[in-house]
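User: quick one - fold this with adenosine-5'-triphosphate bound?
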Amino acid sequence: MIAIEAKGLTKKFGNFTAVDNLNLTVEAGVAFGLLGPNGAGKTTTIRMITGLIKPTAGYVRVYGHDVMTEREKVIKNIGYMPQKFGLYEDLTVEENLMLFGRLYGLNKGEVQQRSNELMEFLDLKIFRSRLAGKLSGGTKQRLSLAVALIHDPLLLILDEPTAGVDPPIRRQFWEIFRDLNRRGKTILITTHYMDEAENCDKLALMSAGRIIAEGSPSDVKRRAFGGDIVEIVLSRPANLDIQGVKIIDADGGRMKLLVDDYSTRVSQIIAKLGPDLRDIRPVHVSLEEAFIKLMGGS
Ligand SMILES: Nc1ncnc2c1ncn2[C@@H]1O[C@H](COP(=O)(O)OP(=O)(O)OP(=O)(O)O)[C@@H](O)[C@H]1O
Ligand SMILES: [Mg+2]
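Assistant: Sure. Structure tokens for the protein plus adenosine-5'-triphosphate:
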């Protein structure tokens, strides 16, 4: 099943094109990361997916429903955690949950039960009577997540949910996201933190309103470098003429190779070099390096 399908999605603000003819498919059940520098168009894309703003061109379907013409059905399926805290600061944690639950059409009993479950799940019980405006940053984010989950949506859209949150707390958030994903929620998430993006099943990298790379984290890395990188150590110089293997760096007996496919080429390299080969190992590439490369070194 397809959770999100966007075709030709475009948003112009006056003469400025914030999102430029974007095609995006997010399959149900995945954790999908939408990445890119400030101003790339991530939030604008999300706001079109949630139906908050109207595309200049193109369309979005959420679980097959058109966002513009079947608004109610779409809203029921989406839980949205916006980039800016959007809750009532002068209501308590529990009051916010109750209010949003009722807005989503849950009855009093349902909303009470869901609120309790979510306060339990997200460690909000001790804050239930505290005003939202008086919560710390991380707790505000947990409340914002709880509100996004109040109507038990199929799709969670999280716009920079961990921005400005300390690293240990960011890790806790990711445990929660993975947990929700395991329980069947599709997740679309934006983040600036590349280490977090490694947690996603699929990624799309946006730049200036367009998607410039897409795939699993390892796909994106291979795309950036044109293959896998392998480091070998040789006991003496040797000829390494194998199709699909390119030497990209050599320092004495230590060489970096770019191989088109790690699994098939490694055995060929081992066979060719025989006892001259002292060590062979894949080089870990970070997503950050891959993205810098894909963005043209900027
Ligand atoms: N309502 C608007 N009117 C005019 N320009 C806008 C509007 N909303 C967004 N933009 C512009 O569109 C571009 C994309 O903005 P957007 O917020 O989608 O980027 P983003 O990828 O979410 O960035 P960030 O990582 O900073 O959140 C930016 O240049 C922004 O200034
Ligand atoms: Mg944004």
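One thing worth noting: The chain has a mean pLDDT of 93.
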